[in-house]
Write a structure and sequence with these properties.
mainly alpha; 228 residues; 0% strand; Vanadium-containing Chloroperoxidase, domain 1; disordered N terminus
Length: 228
């Protein structure tokens, strides 16, 4: 086991696929070279995060990463919105949970399987301090489901209740960073997951605004009156 090479980031696996195809031309060779460089940067950033001398963050970020399993923060937030947020809060909660559901289905099925269940980073080999470790998931590494769900919920709810958007985006960013900090994901896993989640969150939010346009405009006017 100690003599095996570390698993390469997703960019390097894509590069291998490009050059392994029959008749790979110059364009594929250039794309393969670019992907390998990006893969190198991916590992460099991962190591840089692992080498951060921030012991005071180890326990908080480890707890954040664990707590985010099964989208617990977002389900709890949705519950609070539904109970205390009135009709608008219930619409935002439903929109956010819908975004999580669609995002999780896409990320955990076709996207992860398309990369052949990419292996997780070797935390020991790549220098992640053991005190940061959380349980290593058994699923493929690419893309990050935690980051995708967090971004999907934050963006979707922020579309319906704009005032909540900044706070939820910060919370989602902390969750995403914790996945690299604890060593269970490469940065590319997190970036792609968050991008996919944000996309589905935006779509869910826009559909919700079309579904309840009159109620949303009324709520926004009410907010402006109280902040002006």
């Amino acid at each position: 086991m100690t003599g095996s090479p570390p698993p390469g980031p997703v960019e390097e696996r894509l590069a291998d696929r490009l050059v392994d195809q029959p008749g790979a031309g110059a364009a594929r060779q250039r794309a393969s070279s670019l992907l390998r460089r990006l893969g190198g940067y991916d590992r460099v950033v991962y190591r840089s995060v692992a080498e951060l001398s921030t012991p005071r963050l180890d326990e908080p970020l480890r707890r954040v990463s664990d707590f985010a399993n099964f989208s617990k923060p977002w389900f709890l937030t949705a519950g609070a919105l539904a109970v205390f947020g009135g009709p608008r809060g219930r619409r935002a909660a439903l929109t956010g949970l819908t975004a999580i559901g669609v995002t999780s289905l896409v990320v955990n099925q076709p996207m992860k399987k398309s990369m052949g269940e990419r292996r997780r980073p070797d935390r020991h080999r790549l220098g992640v301090p053991a005190q940061r470790w959380v349980r290593m998931p058994a699923s493929g590494s690419f893309p990050s489901g935690h980051s995708a769900s967090a971004a999907a919920f934050a963006v979707a709810v922020g579309e319906v209740i704009p005032g909540f958007g900044p706070v939820l985006r910060v919370a989602a960013s902390v969750v995403a960073f914790s996945r690299v900090y604890t060593g269970v994901h490469y940065p590319s896993d997190v970036l792609v997951g968050a991008t996919v989640g944000a996309l589905f969150g935006r779509v869910a939010g826009r559909l919700a605004l079309r579904r309840w346009p009159a109620a949303t405009r009324s709520s926004q006017r009410h907010d402006k009156e109280h902040t002006s």
